[in-house]
Amino acid sequence: MLLNVIARGPEDQSGGESARPPIVLLHGLFGRARNLGFFQRRLARTRRTLAIDLRNHGDSPHGPMDYNTMADDLLDTLAHHAALPATLVGHSMGGKVAMTLALTRPGMVHSLLVADIPPARTGHGQFSLGEQMLRVKFPPYLNLAEADALLRPEIPNADVRALMLQNIRLGENPGWIIGLRDIVSSMTNIESWPYIPEGYTYPGPTLFLAGGNSPYIRREHFGVMRRLFPNYWLERIEEAGHWLHVENPTRFAALLEAFTEQY
C-alpha cells in the first residue's frame, strides 16, 4: 500500500545537506502527517523530509492493521519516493512501525528516533477511546467549535483534542475521515508488539525519548531495548506525558534536531 506523503526540503538542493539521508516523520495513533508540520518545517530548512499518513490515518488508504503490514507500507512508500535509506522518527504507534522496519530491514534505516514507546506491549492504550469515538453521533451539520464541544467530554486535554479534531469532516454530513472501524478492530495488534525472530537487531544509532510524566517506557523495558537496539540511549522530556511533542515541543524539537544533525 502506498501511503500519503507530505514532502518538504530546502529550496536550494545543491548543498551537501541534500545528499544526507531523508528524515521520515511518523505520527501516533489517531494522528496524521500534518500534526508534525512544526517539526518538519524546521528540519526541512536543511534536509529532505517526508511526513507520512499511516494506513487508516489522514489521506492514506484504509485496511486491517498490524506492524509488519504497516512496516511494509512504509518500505514500499519510501522506495516509491526514492527515500531509502532514511532516518526514521516515530511517535508511539509510528515508533513501533519505525522499530519494526529497522529490525526487519536494518539496511533501509540510517538512524532511528522513537518517541515514548518501547519495543513491548505496555499495558496502556486507546481501545476505550476508539470505541467512544465510534459511538459519537454526528448532527447534520458541524462547525469546528461544535466539534470541539462534541469531543470535550471524551478528550479533556485541549492539545490532544485539537489533534483529534483534524480527523473529523466538518460542514454538511460530518463524520470521521479516518478508518476508525479498521483501527478499532485492529486495536489488539496496535497495542501489542509484533513477533521479531530471534537474533534480529538494529545496530544503528537509536534515540528513545520518554515523557517525564509518561508511564510507557519503564525500567523493565531497558533490557529488551538493549537487546534489540544495542546502540540506543534514552532522554527524558520533563513536564510532558505520552504526547511529549505536543506538551513540550521546544525540548522535543531541540533533541530531534540535535539527533538528526549528528546522524
From TrEMBL:
Matching InterPro entries, A to Z?
AB_hydrolase_1, AB_hydrolase_fold, Epox_hydrolase-like
Q: Where is the AB hydrolase-1 domain?
A: 23-254
The stretch of residues making up the signal peptide is none
Does this entry carry the keyword Hydrolase? yes
- Gene3D superfamilies in the cross-refs: alpha/beta hydrolase
Q: Name one GO molecular function term.
A: carboxylic ester hydrolase activity
Keywords recorded for this protein, A-Z: Hydrolase
SUPFAM superfamilies noted in UniProt: alpha/beta-Hydrolases (SSF53474)
The answer on whether this UniProt entry bears the keyword Hydrolase reads yes
PANTHER family this protein is in?
A: PROTEIN ABHD11 (PTHR46118:SF4)
- Would you tell me the protein name for this molecule? Alpha/beta fold hydrolase
What is the species of this protein? Gluconacetobacter diazotrophicus (Acetobacter diazotrophicus)
Q: Mind giving the lineage of the organism this protein is from?
A: Bacteria, Pseudomonadati, Pseudomonadota, Alphaproteobacteria, Acetobacterales
